[in-house]
Structure formats: structure tokens, C-alpha cells
Design brief:
single chain, 442 residues, alpha+beta, Creatine Kinase, Chain A, domain 2, 2 domains, twelve-stranded mixed β-sheet, seven-stranded mixed β-sheet, 22% strand, globular
């Protein structure tokens, strides 16, 4: 195996292998090992400080209260099944890593957390297929201003012409890495784009979300553009979400639908679990103070805790198909790319499984814009407004024993401390300050 791996790297003229992780600040980071020294890292990877899981997105200083500091080392151990040459960085190859301490998965490792949640689902004879649907802005490079790459509107074919060179290059780079692309279209904001990936098993879906973000930003840069997944860049334009699409499977069969074209009992319970835990789950799926500028009523972002068939104002949308089987998947809209995909997807699985285990009942489907209902009508239909700022979501997660138990005390404590550090630092910032600080982080 080791000889085959090294030979394959030589055939692709690899100079560096980038070993990647996504931290609790939801920043993608990596260490690159030169090919000449790689044989020493094949099994045990490379070392990083334990404090890396205490770093918020705003600055490279450990947050207080994480339980992590300058003392202690863990290993970034590559998952060699994920190794991929980078078409946009010739001579470099990427591999995803697990964090390991003393030969065991480190209790602070986000990727290991998702693996645990996948195993928990398997114990219920459930498998999760998933995909992240990304919106992002293409911007013109400028030292002074944030300038969109064009001034077009939703699904503008002219935008397709304007941005064809960059979009084609992004898609080809994704396909080169084995990431199948389903659809592309310009989104509502000026210069805003959306590219959707094809479903994969949950761990692969999260790995590919990391690869997607890396690829889009790198290829856009090569086309003299800047790409940003920051949830809200312009005050009067659409925000960018990263909707999480998922389906439930048993023994190779999609059990999300019934033969009558409705959610199956198990899928209904899973959705009920998501709805029940959603205010706390948002600390994982929309974890930036900037996220909550996007999550507004009547902006198709899912600001209300409800679900509905083909309802784009509900937090959970169930898309229908023109023919059976239908529905084949479910969309969670309250997700954006400031989220660590391993934590967001793992948390969603934990919430859904709780609904299945407790056989939670799903409220009625909502077939109207919930913002048009009176407060009394929303109350009668069990609809409420989701957290309006990160501080509220943090407090909800602090009180949610189901999600904290799934995360484990160490990861949960560290994650909450990082979130709190970011919230306290940025809670009084203007949008302009947030964008200046975060636009290149995501």
C-alpha cells in the first residue's frame, strides 16, 4: 500500500501533500509535507498543537475556556482514501485528516465526531446520503471596495456568459477530483453563483464540501476574481447559504418516501428531530455572527421553525418530484459555509436520530409563507422564529443535552468557547467590519 501510494505520487509529479483539517472556527487549514519526507508521515501523519482546536476565526489566539492551550500535541493522520491531485495547484495533492492522540481518535476531532454519528445511524440500520448546495459570490479584486463580478439577477443567462470562463474552470476542476456536479445557475445577488454537487455517503459529502470551498476560491483567484462564501456581504442583496440535502437509506434502498408520495414514518421522525433541536443545532450550522444577517423572514433563508413541501420560506423544505418516487430527499436551509461541515452534518444526524429514537411526531406541513401568518396563527401551527443572533443559538446549544452528549464534553466545551469568543468580539460590529474580517475566511 505505502509503495503504491508513493509510486502514484511520483507519477503525478507531486511535490507537496497538503494534509487538511477544518477547525472549530470553521477555517480550513493544512500542513504540506514534501514528497521527499512523506515516507515518514504515512502512518502517523504530522503533529499540530492541541490549541489549534481553540482558535476562533477572527485571530490566531486560543479562546479562553476551551480546555486547550500551548501544551500538548496531536497528530493529523491522513485518510489516504481521500487523496486527490489538485488540478489548480500542479504538483500539490490534498488529503483529509483525522486528529489522533495516542493512536486513538482525538476527542476534539470534528471529522471523528461525524464518523461517530454515522456509526450511531448504522446502529439504527440507517445510512445517510447527503450533499451541500453552495451559494457564493464572485467579486472583482479591489483593495478599497467589495465589488461584485457583475450586476445581473437570478438565473441570468447573461451572467452565465460573463462568468463562463471561471465557472467552467471550477466545474472541470471539481470533476477532475471526482466530484460530480449536478446543476449550476447564477443566484439572486450580483455576481452570486450556485453549483450543486451530487449526493454521497455522509462522510464523503463533508469531505467534498471542504474540497468544494477550496477549489472555488483557488480557481476564481486564477481568473482574477475573488470568491467568498460569507453568508452576508451586501446589506441590500441576497445572502449565501449552503443548504444541506439529505436522504435516509436502508440496505441500499431510499426510505425517505412512501409509495403515496409523502415522507415515510422514519423520515418524518427524523425531520421532527431536526425541527425540535434546530434552535440549538444552528450554533453548528449557522455559527457566525454574520450568519444571522442572512436569516431574515421573506428572504428564502428559513427564518421560521417549520417545514413544508416545496416551501422555500420554511427552515426545512421537502422537494417533490413530478413522478414517483417522491420525495427522495429533504433540504435543511439554515446552513451556511461558515459551518464546519463535519460538525454541521454530524449535528443534524444526531438531532434526526433523536427524533427517530423517540418517535417524535411531525407538525403539519406549512403551505404558506410563515411571515404572512399572525402570531396567533403561527402559535397554533407550532411555528416560531428561529434565533436572531448567534448568542441565542449558543445559549440554546448550552442547554441541549442531546447535541452536547453527541459532541462529547470535550468537543462541546471547546466548540462553545470558540463560538462565544467570536460572538463577544463581533456582536457590536457593523456589517462592514464583519465583511472586512471574514470575507477571506469563508
Amino acid at each position: 500500500m505505502n509503495e503504491q501510494l508513493l509510486s502514484s505520487l511520483d507519477r503525478t509529479n507531486t511535490r507537496f501533500v497538503r494534509i487538511l483539517w477544518c477547525d472549530n472556527g470553521n477555517v480550513i487549514r493544512g500542513k504540506a509535507v514534501h514528497r521527499g519526507r512523506l515516507s515518514q508521515c504515512l502512518t502517523h501523519g504530522v503533529g499540530i498543537s492541541q490549541a489549534q482546536q481553540a482558535i476562533p476565526a477572527i485571530k490566531d489566539v486560543p479562546a479562553a475556556g476551551t480546555g486547550l492551550g500551548p501544551v500538548g500535541e496531536v497528530r493529523l493522520v491522513p485518510d489516504w482514501t481521500t487523496i486527490t491531485p489538485l488540478p489548480y495547484a500542479v504538483g500539490h495533492t490534498r488529503v483529509m485528516a483525522d486528529m489522533v492522540e495516542n493512536g486513538q481518535p482525538w476527542r476534539f476531532c470534528p471529522r471523528s465526531f461525524l464518523k461517530r454519528m454515522i456509526a450511531s445511524a448504522a446502529a439504527e440500520n440507517l445510512q445517510i446520503q447527503a450533499a451541500f448546495e453552495n451559494e457564493f459570490y464572485l467579486l472583482k479584486p479591489s483593495a478599497a471596495d467589495i465589488i461584485p463580478a457583475d450586476e445581473t439577477v437570478f438565473a441570468s443567462s447573461f451572467s452565465m456568459d460573463l462568468q463562463q470562463p471561471a465557472i467552467d474552470a471550477i466545474v472541470e476542476a471539481l470533476i477532475f477530483q471526482g466530484i460530480a456536479v449536478e446543476q449550476y445557475y447564477p443566484e439572486s445577488g450580483p455576481g452570486q453563483q450556485e453549483i450543486s454537487m451530487v449526493y454521497q455517503p455522509a462522510l464523503t459529502a463533508a469531505d467534498r464540501q471542504i474540497a468544494f470551498r477550496e477549489t472555488v476560491k483557488a480557481v476564481a483567484h486564477q481568473h482574477q476574481l475573488k470568491a467568498s462564501f460569507l453568508p452576508k456581504i451586501f446589506p441590500d442583496q441576497a445572502g449565501s447559504g449552503t443548504h444541506l440535502h439529505w436522504s435516509l437509506w436502508q440496505d441500499g434502498t431510499n426510505i425517505t418516501p412512501t409509495e403515496q408520495g409523502e415522507l415515510s414514518p422514519t423520515a418524518s421522525q427524523f425531520v421532527a428531530g431536526l425541527l425540535h433541536h434546530l434552535p440549538a443545532l444552528m450554533a453548528l450550522t449557522t455559527p457566525s455572527p454574520n450568519s444571522y444577517r442572512r436569516l431574515q423572514p421573506q428572504s428564502w433563508s428559513g427564518a421560521f421553525r417549520c417545514w413544508g413541501y416545496d416551501n422555500r420560506e420554511a427552515a426545512i423544505r421537502v422537494p417533490t418530484n413530478p413522478t414517483l418516487p417522491s420525495p427522495t430527499h429533504v433540504e435543511l436551509k439554515t446552513v451556511d459555509a461558515s459551518a464546519n461541515p463535519y460538525l454541521a452534518l454530524g449535528g443534524a444526524i444526531a438531532a434526526g436520530l433523536d427524533g427517530v429514537r423517540r418517535r417524535l411526531s411531525l407538525p403539519e406541513a406549512i403551505a404558506v409563507d410563515p411571515a404572512t401568518l399572525t402570531a396567533a396563527e403561527r402559535n397554533s401551527k407550532q411555528i416560531d422564529r428561529l434565533p436572531c443572533h448567534l448568542g441565542d443559538a449558543i445559549q440554546q446549544l448550552r442547554q441541549n443535552q442531546t447535541l452536547l452528549s453527541a459532541l462529547g464534553s470535550d468537543l462541546g466545551t471547546a466548540y462553545l468557547a470558540v463560538r462565544r469568543a467570536e460572538y463577544e468580539a463581533m456582536k457590536d460590529w457593523s456589517l462592514e467590519q464583519e465583511v472586512k474580517q471574514l470575507i477571506d475566511r469563508y
